[in-house]
Amino acid sequence: MPSGMNSCEGTPDTTLMLRVRWGDERAFGELHGRYCRRITDFFYGMSRDSQASEDLCQETFLRVWKLRTRYAATGSFPAYLFAFARNIWLERCRQLRKRRVVRLAGTMDESWQPVAGTKSNHPDEAAARAEVEERIFEALDRLPNEQRMVFVMRTIQGLSIEEIAEAMQCPMNTVRSRRLLAIKKLREALKNLLVL
Description:
By secondary structure, the protein is an all-alpha fold. It contains 9 helices and no strands. It has 2 domains: 11-105, RNA polymerase sigma factor, region 2, helix turn helix motif (Rna Polymerase Sigma Factor, Chain: A, Orthogonal Bundle), CATH 1.10.1740.10; 120-196, Winged helix-like DNA-binding domain superfamily/Winged helix DNA-binding domain (Arc Repressor Mutant, subunit A). It has helices at residues 3-6, 13-21, 25-47, 50-66, 77-99, 123-142, 145-156, 161-168, 172-189.
């Protein structure tokens, strides 16, 4: 095979996934490299548990690999991938409810900074940033699951309304209304802290 055929860099996601469908591990590795951080951040935004986020991310990619032969190149690849992540998250919530586990505590993952701005080594600024992040996550935790999921997918992950609707298998207007409700509730919860 010519050397150019082995390279996955610059190849569109859907083309890579079509190659994955036929068992191309290199193409799968490229997709994993492109989306692992985003999926982990999605789960962190939902759970605030670093270890669980990494585990759920790996479960997402494992499931994509197991079900690769069912892939059809319709819609966007991020929507396809986040649909898996959403389903895995909902499964986890059902399992936790069955075990009567409220949720596991986690620490802020240093590689993800939801608050805009430059990182500072000054202790006062770091403490203030940590407090803001904690307040944001507390407010996110109080949102209903579907509203929190839409907010995380749109605001933190940058998915389009269409991609979120596809991932959540609901109309775009439902996504819009869930996002607006989430923003309204977050504004109210954080009104003394920041403006959304």
